Here is the input.
Amino acid sequence: MNSDNKKYELKNLSPKELEKLFAGWGEPAFRSKQLFNWMYNNLASDFSEMLNFSKALRNRLAEECELISLKLESVQSSSNSGTKKFLFSTKDNNKIETVLIPDKNRNTLCISTQAGCPLDCKFCATGLMGFIRNLTTAEIIDQYILAAKNCGENGITNIVYMGMGEPLINFDDSVKSLEIFTHEYNIGLSRRKITLSTSGIPHRIKELAERGLRIKLALSLHSCFEDIRSKIMPINKKYSLAENIDAIKYYTDKTKTRITYEYTMLKGINDRPEDIDALVKLCRKIPSKINLIPFNSIAHMAPGGISAGLEPTPLNKIEKFAEELSKHKITVILRNTQGSDIAAACGQLAGKDNSQL
Here is the structure.
């Protein structure tokens, strides 16, 4: 037990920390690899499944350790796309949401790193619900473990840190979860299939580059103009776009990866000809691609202020916007909205029970 008599949350521990735990119990180091394999490759949810451990060791693990940190409250499926939204509760009864997005050859899991979010982006339901707390490493990882049990035989192929919260504010736990997902013992995932999305914390972007993970990075951009970005993303007042572009360049140079700019299309705000020109100029500086995202309704949050007046750019205009960018040899992906009928699309997560939607 920990000194405060609380059980160990095993998924908060790295393989080295698991080794240390077992060593303290007089167990050999290889037990940590066996336990890692049970948790992450076999998706074990009970110590009784771990039959290559003695009964005495299984009992001790059950007495002193926690294997699962979240409770799955409900799964809601979209009738339009097959997208699934998982509602989890933490042990202190906070609600978080995770989304599984199916495609032809992949299943992408969108995971959360915070309960709520402190950034107050005006187009995002999570921002409107406010900030509650950071999630632990175990709570981040268990979204994957529990969702993987509910996604069919193909399993989860891709992970995107694009759910509730800002991963780089919850830096230590987000990075530790990435280190576990990309560890050599983990046979189910590739670092090339993991993307972390950030609204822009420059010093943390640079620190992430130094960790050697070489995961994909996405910047939640939404405008190339400082004044507009500050209105719809208040974090820009603290960390300017110019600072973030400098950090992004550092990241791409250090990791030899290509950045993705996420760009939610807002009518009359960031869909103008001058926005196209600014994006072209930006994309010529750094190896990158652009995800154009239709604005999804946040009416279920009853927003006020700027948020209440936001409207989606019409689809035909988004298509024209993408066409103009493509003329400049910029890679543009027009993201299809999936899961909006269950408030599971980009920007809609708010930790609400299904009955509230």
Notes: The chain has twelve helices and 14 strands.
